[in-house]
């Protein structure tokens, strides 16, 4: 940046902050003339245009700033604010999310400054609510989303955001109420049905959850997480065939996460198909080598097949990751007993009792 360009940009910042938006725009325009490949004056001019209410010009300048510097969080913030004013909340959320990913502190500061300049800007409260939610500051997020609603920003995304914050706080009834309103305002958003379904799951409302996940799949047939969530819920209901079908579809759609294979493995185990269960648990620990439950359950599957050496190896791996679970020591003790190693079996059973897991006569290894 040349000295003249730097001075022009600083002058633009000063004038913008003083409320002289026309003067700021002129200064930024001069900075752009001197160095048209620098993103900063485009971002500054975009903010000045936004403050003047010339939203389309603001978006155009933010577009250019992001094109020149894709890592400029403040340009995404300004564009998110602009899209919000235009009522394009899908784009606003996408830009705000990217700004948070790049620089959550800068995103929060931008939104707070916007609120300071105009306490009635509902979009700024909404954007800051998204920032707080991303930072897991859910109480603050709820306050901001609520203020944006009070200022009459009645869009589905606002209620969905507040519902998510309530869900993360464990207030599932409030979450569901907000998701209900989001669905009423925009019944075509798959994410809202998915989120409401997760809240129903937490309340034990599995049938309602499945209905919501099914609607999410209908609206977005390539949403792998919707299939995964429905698969988990079918599993909780004991409908393992449907659960397996959904887990398999999630994998086909490239949701190759350890929990997906683990969930499907558990269903195969419940059906007595221990070879397929072992294969899925194997995929799970390959994807997440610290997945203690997957090692443990694979160990249980090996016990069912009578392969106590492999079972002991898996139980030992689970103990290495989490040495506080008494049932794992008990299960390993059982396998040692089956192999005739009474000393090691007694040691493991004693450790299980020490950790609060009472040995029961005839109890074998059992899945978690």
What does this entry show, briefly?
This protein is mainly α. The protein has a domain of 112 residues: Tetratricopeptide repeat domain (Serine Threonine Protein Phosphatase 5, Tetratricopeptide repeat), CATH 1.25.40.10.
Overview of the molecule:
With 368 residues, the protein is an all-alpha fold. The protein has helices at residues 3-18, 21-34, 39-52, 55-68, 73-85, 89-102, 104-117, 122-134, 138-150, 156-168, 172-185, 190-202, 206-219, 224-237, 240-252, 258-270, 274-287, 292-304, 308-321, 326-338, 342-354. The protein has a domain at 257-368: Serine Threonine Protein Phosphatase 5, Tetratricopeptide repeat (Alpha Horseshoe), CATH 1.25.40. α6 crosses α7, α7 (104-117) packs antiparallel against α8 (122-134) and α8 (122-134) packs parallel to α10. The protein is elongated, with a radius of gyration of 28 Å. The model has no long low-confidence stretch (mean pLDDT 91).
Offer a few descriptive terms.
mainly alpha, Serine Threonine Protein Phosphatase 5, Tetratricopeptide repeat, 78% helix
Q: How does the helix and strand content classify structurally? A: mainly alpha
Name of the level-1 CATH class of the domain at 257-368:
Mainly Alpha
Strand content: under 5%
Question: Uncertain regions: pLDDT < 50 for 5+ in a row?
Answer: none
CATH homologous superfamily caption of the domain at 257-368: Tetratricopeptide repeat domain
Q: Mind describing the biggest β-sheet?
A: none
How would you spell out the order of helices and strands?
A: HHHHHHHHHHHHHHHHHHHHH
Helix content: over 70%
Count of alpha/pi helices: 21
Could you tell me the number of beta strands?
Answer: 0
Radius of gyration, taken over Cα atoms and rounded to an integer in Å:
28 Å
Query: Architecture of the domain at 257-368 in CATH?
Result: Alpha Horseshoe
Tell me, briefly, the overall form: elongated
Distance between the termini: 61 Å
As for the CATH topology of the domain at 257-368, it is: Serine Threonine Protein Phosphatase 5, Tetratricopeptide repeat
Mean pLDDT: 91
């Amino acid at each position: 940046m040349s000295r003249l360009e730097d001075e022009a940009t600083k002058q633009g910042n000063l004038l913008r902050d003083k409320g002289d938006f026309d003067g700021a725009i002129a200064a930024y325009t001069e900075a752009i003339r001197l160095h048209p490949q620098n993103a900063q004056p485009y971002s500054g001019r975009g903010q000045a245009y936004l403050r003047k209410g010339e939203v389309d010009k603001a978006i155009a300048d933010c577009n250019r700033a992001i094109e020149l510097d894709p890592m400029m969080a403040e340009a995404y913030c300004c564009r998110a604010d602009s899209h919000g004013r235009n009522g394009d909340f899908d784009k606003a959320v996408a830009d705000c999310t990217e700004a948070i990913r790049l620089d959550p502190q800068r995103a929060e500061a931008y939104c707070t400054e916007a609120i300071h300049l105009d306490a009635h800007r509902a979009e700024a409260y909404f954007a800051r609510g998204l920032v707080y939610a991303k930072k897991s500051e859910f109480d603050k997020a709820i306050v901001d989303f609520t203020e944006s609603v009070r200022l009459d920003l009645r869009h589905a995304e606002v209620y969905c955001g507040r519902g998510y914050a309530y869900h993360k706080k464990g207030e599932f009834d409030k979450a569901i109420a907000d998701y209900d309103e989001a669905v009423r305002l925009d019944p075509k958003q798959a994410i809202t049905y998915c989120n409401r379904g997760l809240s129903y799951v937490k309340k034990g409302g599995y049938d309602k959850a499945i209905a919501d996940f099914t609607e999410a799949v209908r609206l977005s047939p390539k949403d792998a997480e919707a299939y995964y969530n429905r698969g988990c819920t079918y599993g909780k209901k004991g409908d393992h065939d449907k659960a397996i079908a959904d887990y398999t579809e999630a994998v086909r759609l490239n949701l190759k996460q350890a929990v997906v294979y683990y969930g499907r493995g558990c269903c195969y185990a419940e059906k007595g198909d221990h070879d397929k269960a072992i294969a899925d648990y194997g995929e799970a620990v390959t994807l997440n080598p610290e997945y203690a439950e997957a090692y443990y359950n694979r160990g249980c599957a090996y016990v069912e097949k009578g392969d106590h050496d492999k079972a002991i190896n898996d139980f030992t791996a689970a103990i290495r990751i989490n040495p506080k679970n008494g049932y794992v020591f008990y299960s390993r003790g059982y396998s040692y007993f089956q192999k005739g190693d009474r000393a090691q079996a007694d040691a493991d059973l004693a450790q299980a009792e020490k950790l609060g897991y009472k040995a029961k006569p005839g109890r074998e290894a059992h899945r978690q």
